Amino acid sequence: MIPLCFMAVIAALGGLAAVGLALGPMAAIASSALVAAPALGAVSLASGLAAAVVALRRYG
């Protein structure tokens, strides 16, 4: 469960960084950052949900 939580947090921070890059002045990086941000958000969501399922099965 801890690795899933760690992956969710790292992916969320990566998505936040990608959004920051997309809003920045460098146009060359902005297009790829706009593609990466939703993908990192999806990874974060999936990892967080998987960690919640593991926790509920373990303690529920």
Q: How would you describe the overall organization of this protein?
A:
The protein has 60 residues and is an all-alpha fold. Helix content is 90%, strand content 0%. The chain contains two helices and no strands. It has helices at residues 2-22, 27-59. The model has no long low-confidence stretch (mean pLDDT 89).
Please give a quick description of this structure.
By secondary structure, this protein is mainly alpha-helical. The protein has two helices and no strands. The mean pLDDT is 89.
Largest sheet: none
Terminal CA distance: 14 Å
Mean pLDDT: 89
- Spatial extent as radius of gyration: 14 Å
Which H/E pattern describes the elements? HH
Label the overall shape: rod-shaped
Helix content: over 70%
Spans with pLDDT under 50 lasting ≥5 residues?
none
Structural class category: mainly alpha
